[in-house]
């Protein structure tokens, strides 16, 4: 059954941190391609099945243009903010997207990421040392989840980590759905102004880091300009720390709450890569990012989507689709399946996915090896989950040992 | 079975390298797929099949010839 009458309003809240919003299961069973109501009263389509989400994200007839009036957003006014600046990679379509992605994706290859391993291990160890030397309980978010990926992305991009409080607070405000439009605009403007100045410096004197190398590449190829580079820097800085930080907090929380799974991980380090894939699938922290707008009439899952209509590919629903992931609600570190769409799918699939994988593997391995007595220092149902953010996570995670 | 890689479609996600590093690599500049073993056998073929199924851009396929 499909219905043109919206029955569900999005964004929906999770009632349990370990499960997607409960509405998704009903949608997947009754109307896997559903009409939904978005904030402000606009409507869009929502896809809930793994197959349909993948099909849509791989189909070039769906556009990523976040300034398109039909583009579905969870926060009203998001298109206006996007329209004020040059589009970043996540909002580009062909023919612009391919060359723009290729100009930077070489920085994120599996080999390039593996070369960062020793430095990342050092960063993780230093932060675990500092946590162990400090008072108990500690907030894992401040001690580890946020600083590790922030430092890594800063060193990779060539952004001074000393400014982390400035850009972490701006990214946080930008992602919070409850932040008023004016506040979001201000946060975006301040972050852009900061990175604009930084890029200007790198144009004057190119440094040996990702942004400095992009300056040189632009000169070599004649493709892209200053504003493109600022948009890229904003995207990579936000995406590079917020997502991984939330996965570190949630993954640690899940392992603490599932001692049997934690034992699997501690008993056999070979479980680690698969464990990270399973945690990515299980939490699926970005639901709204994999949205598109149809540029022509397209049938998905037997439903006709008309040109100009917005479509949300609900990643957490797709990743809990029992047709692809049996017993989807069970955390199973030995599941051994990388078909999840936690990094999206199609031409826009996460640029930094191999950095994220490696950081998560190294943090979980180090944390549980070095702090075997790690445990929660607050009741699980009282933890402050990011129910109001476009990226799910934890604001705080009190732990002791 | 022969691996067919369409580098014009490839988006450099690197998922194939994770599936089977003996068979796939990435171009250092553009991150796009480099096939190291065109006709993999045994376990490598299984890894290549997984890579084809996971590839986000549809750049990989297996040909019968």
Automatic annotation (TrEMBL), chain A:
PROSITE patterns linked: CYTOCHROME_P450
InterPro entries: Cyt_P450, Cyt_P450_B, Cyt_P450_CS, Cyt_P450_sf
Superkingdom of the source species: Bacteria
Keyword Cell division: no
A Pfam family this chain is assigned to: p450
Signal peptide: none
Any GO molecular function: iron ion binding
Keywords, alphabetical: Heme, Iron, Metal-binding, Monooxygenase, Oxidoreductase
Family in the record: Belongs to the cytochrome P450 family.
Protein name, per record: Cytochrome
From TrEMBL, chain B:
GO molecular function: 3 iron, 4 sulfur cluster binding; electron transfer activity; iron ion binding
Cofactor: [3Fe-4S] cluster
SUPFAM superfamilies per record: 4Fe-4S ferredoxins (SSF54862)
Keywords in alphabetical order: 3Fe-4S, Electron transport, Iron, Iron-sulfur, Metal-binding, Transport
Keyword hit for Electron transport: yes
Domain 4Fe-4S ferredoxin-type: 1-29
Function: Ferredoxins are iron-sulfur proteins that transfer electrons in a wide variety of metabolic reactions.
Descriptive protein name: Ferredoxin
Organism (species): Streptomyces nanshensis
């Amino acid at each position: 059954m499909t219905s043109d009458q919206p029955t569900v309003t999005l964004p929906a809240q999770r009632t349990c941190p370990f499960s997607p919003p409960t509405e998704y299961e009903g949608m997947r069973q009754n109307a896997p391609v559903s009409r939904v109501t978005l904030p402000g009263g606009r409507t869009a389509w929502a896809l809930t099945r793994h197959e349909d989400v993948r099909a849509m994200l791989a189909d070039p007839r769906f556009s990523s243009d976040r300034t398109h009036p039909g583009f579905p957003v969870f926060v009203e006014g998001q298109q206006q903010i996007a329209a004020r600046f040059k589009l970043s990679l996540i909002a580009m379509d062909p023919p612009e997207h391919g060359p723009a992605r290729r100009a930077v994706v070489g920085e994120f290859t599996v080999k390039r990421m593996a070369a960062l391993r020793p430095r990342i291990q050092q960063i993780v160890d230093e932060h675990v040392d500092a946590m162990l030397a400090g008072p108990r309980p500690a907030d894992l978010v401040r001690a580890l989840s946020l600083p590790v990926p922030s430092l890594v992305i800063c060193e990779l991009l060539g952004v001074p980590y000393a400014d982390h409080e400035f850009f972490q607070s701006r990214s946080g405000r930008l992602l919070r759905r409850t932040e008023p439009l004016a506040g979001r605009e201000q946060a975006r403007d301040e972050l852009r102004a900061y990175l604009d100045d930084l890029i200007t410096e790198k144009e004057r004197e190119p440094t040996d880091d990702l942004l400095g190398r992009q300056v040189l590449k632009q000169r070599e190829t004649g493709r892209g300009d200053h504003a493109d580079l600022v948009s890229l820097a904003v995207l990579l800085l936000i995406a590079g720390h917020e997502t991984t930080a939330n996965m570190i907090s949630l993954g640690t929380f899940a392992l603490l709450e599932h001692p049997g799974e934690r034992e699997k991980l501690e008993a056999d380090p070979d479980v680690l890569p698969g464990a990270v894939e399973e945690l990515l699938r299980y939490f699926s922290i970005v639901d709204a990012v994999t949205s598109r707008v149809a540029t022509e009439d397209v049938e998905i899952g037997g439903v006709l989507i008309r040109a100009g209509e917005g479509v949300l590919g609900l990643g957490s629903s797709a990743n809990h689709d029992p047709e692809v992931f049996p017993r989807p609600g069970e955390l199973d570190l030995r599941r051994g399946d990388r078909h999840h769409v936690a990094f999206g799918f199609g031409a826009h699939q996460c640029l930094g996915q191999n950095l994220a994988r490696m950081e998560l593997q190294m943090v979980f391995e180090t944390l549980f090896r070095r702090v075997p007595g790690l445990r929660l220092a607050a009741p699980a149902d009282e933890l402050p989950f990011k129910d109001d953010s476009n990226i799910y996570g934890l604001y705080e995670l009190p732990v002791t040992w | 079975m022969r691996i067919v890689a369409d580098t014009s479609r490839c988006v450099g996600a690197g998922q194939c390298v994770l599936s089977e590093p003996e068979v796939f690599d990435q171009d250092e500049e553009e991150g796009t797929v480099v096939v190291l073993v065109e006709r993999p056998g045994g376990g490598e073929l299984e890894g290549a099949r997984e890579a084809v199924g996971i590839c986000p851009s549809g750049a990989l396929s297996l040909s019968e010839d």
